[in-house]
UniProtKB/TrEMBL annotation:
The lineage of its organism: Eukaryota, Fungi, Dikarya, Ascomycota, Pezizomycotina. GO terms for molecular function: transmembrane transporter activity. Signal peptide: none annotated. This is Major facilitator superfamily domain-containing protein. Keywords: Membrane, Transmembrane, Transmembrane helix, Transport. It comes from the Eukaryota. The keyword Transmembrane applies. GO terms for cellular component: membrane. It is found in: Membrane. The chain crosses the membrane at residues 73-94, 147-167, 173-195, 207-228, 234-253, 301-326, 338-358, 365-383, 440-463. Pfam families: MFS_1. InterPro entries: MFS, MFS_trans_sf.
Length: 498
């Protein structure tokens, strides 16, 4: 996805398996300072693996913030930034997946496209999506978030509007390629923006809001498709919504969040302090091939990428082709549009609920595996020769698994780039396995991917559990530290989330 962009943008948080554990970091979840010591169960202390001169701010005495004041600041930041970011991602995902809605509305027949050509139109979107992520993300650093994000939003909105006037498959291919090129910079751009607003331990919840929008886009998208089916001939004008969102970006996302106009002087001072605190664990922004090499040799990176590939088969296949799956049950195109609404609502609600639960428990793997069980059962109900009511219930179960698992598990820059690249490769596959009704191949492939994901999740859970045990034994003096690499996630201060 944005692998080469990741090489340029080092200060990206990484949660789940590569994360400092705020649950064990004291009352306020504060990070260990440079030269800090690690507590031992016996009350003694061992020297931290963080060098006393690490980072640009490590040697500075950074003041701590009052927890109540910081909580109020976070509420204010959320009230301003979260709605804007959610609406931006909503419009992006809406324009990306509406091809599934127009397919059941008769668009392929209108332009003379076969089932294979329609599937190709879904897949080629991600060719330019992957290719343009790096250039757009680099431009985000060279220009400003306001210019880049607003420009991208306006460009893909105009593309969506003009898609209403295509008359052949070549026009559809062209609009999908342009749409992918424009939307490729949004996700890395929003994540990079989050890293300059929130601390690492605060970002998981904010990222979860983005993926709730993926579910909301399904709800809003089918509602919009239902309305436009009643207003034949103006389908492309759905892109006007995204143009309005572009204006919201321009006025709602300041280039420098630490000096945002809605903050008072005390809050701006607190934002500056928080920026210094982030710098302690972000490290240098200078590019290092050695860091990239270490990341690519990490077993956790490869197995996490494989897990995300399996999960994204469900994400891109189910979210894009759900209207077609429901149509294959015998419902009309109009019925297929509004019957998807409760499915997406349930999925979004389950995702948001579990996101809050596993953030507080600092446990992720078991929740993902638990949600996958619902997806597996759901696909089995859809595949087996059961009644339409049972198949529709299966769609609800699939939505539970989908929206719990779409959020990527962020790590350092190279890791997130590579992992997302594997995830988007799944989107190309998904476009090819859902070709003709009743979509048996696509559904069987998806449930098989979830089954493989369960096995990989177990392997990963056992591996990082072993890593945590080794760190604990070293910190307790029970064994000698013979590891060659002791920085980054190898530091004893860092605890992997299971």
């Amino acid at each position: 996805m944005f692998f080469f962009w990741a090489l340029q943008c080092n200060p990206v948080l990484f949660t789940d398996v590569f994360k400092f554990d705020p649950c064990t970091a004291g009352q306020n979840g504060s990070l260990f300072k440079a030269g800090a010591t690690l507590p031992r169960p016996d009350g003694e202390k061992s020297e931290s693996s963080i060098p006393s001169d690490a980072g640009n701010h490590a040697s500075e005495a950074i003041p701590t913030l009052d927890s109540h004041e910081e909580k109020c600041l976070l509420l204010k930041l959320d009230a301003v930034f979260v709605p804007v970011i959610m609406l931006v991602y909503l419009s992006c995902f809406l324009d990306r997946t509406n091809i599934g809605n127009v397919k059941v509305a008769g668009m392929p027949e209108d332009i003379g496209a076969s089932d294979a050509e329609s599937s190709t139109a879904v897949s080629i979107f991600y060719a330019t999506y992957v290719a343009f992520e790096s250039p757009w993300a680099i431009l985000l650093k060279k220009l400003t978030p306001r210019v880049v994000l607003t420009g991208l939003c306006v460009l893909w909105s105009l593309t969506t509007i003009f898609s209403g006037f295509i008359t052949n498959i070549g026009g559809l291919y062209a609009t999908r390629l342009v749409l992918g090129a424009c939307e490729g910079g949004l996700f890395p751009g929003l994540n990079l923006y989050l890293t300059v607003v929130y601390k690492r331990e605060e970002q998981a919840r904010r990222v979860s809001y983005l993926f709730v929008c993926a579910a909301l886009s399904g709800t809003f998208g089918v509602f919009l498709a239902y309305v436009l089916l009643k207003m034949d001939g103006i389908g492309g004008y759905a892109g006007i919504f995204s143009i309005l969102i572009g204006l919201l970006i321009w006025f709602g996302l300041p280039n420098d969040p630490t000096n945002a106009s809605f903050l008072n002087e005390r809050e701006k001072e607190m934002m500056q302090i928080r920026a210094k605190q982030r710098a302690q664990y972000m490290g240098s922004e200078e590019f290092s091939w050695e860091e990239i090499r270490m990341a690519l040799k990490d077993f956790k990176l490869w197995i996490s990428g494989a897990i995300q590939f399996c999960q994204d088969i469900l994400l891109y296949g189910f979210s894009t082709f759900l209207p077609s799956i429901i149509t294959s049950m015998g419902h009309s195109s109009i019925e297929a549009q509004y019957l998807t609404i409760p499915v997406y609502v349930l999925g979004g609600a389950c995702f948001l609920t579990l996101a809050f639960v596993y953030e507080h428990l600092c446990i992720r793997g078991p929740f993902i595996a638990f949600a996958n069980i619902f997806g597996i059962i759901g696909y089995i109900l859809i595949i087996c020769p059961t009644g339409n009511g049972v198949k529709f219930f299966g769609a609800f179960l699939c939505a539970i698994a989908l929206n719990v698992n779409v959020a990527p598990h962020y790590r350092r820059a190279a890791a997130i780039g590579f992992q997302q690249t594997l995830g988007n490769t799944a989107s190309i596959v998904a476009g090819q396995i859902y070709r003709t009704s009743p979509y048996l191949l696509g559904n069987v492939f998806s449930v098989s991917a979830l089954g493989l994901a369960q096995l990989l999740i177990l392997i990963k859970w056992l591996y990082i559990r072993r890593c945590n045990m080794l760190k604990e034994q070293i910190a307790n003096g029970e064994m000698q530290d013979k590891r060659r690499v002791k920085t980054g996630d190898r530091e004893l201060d860092f605890k992997y989330h299971l």
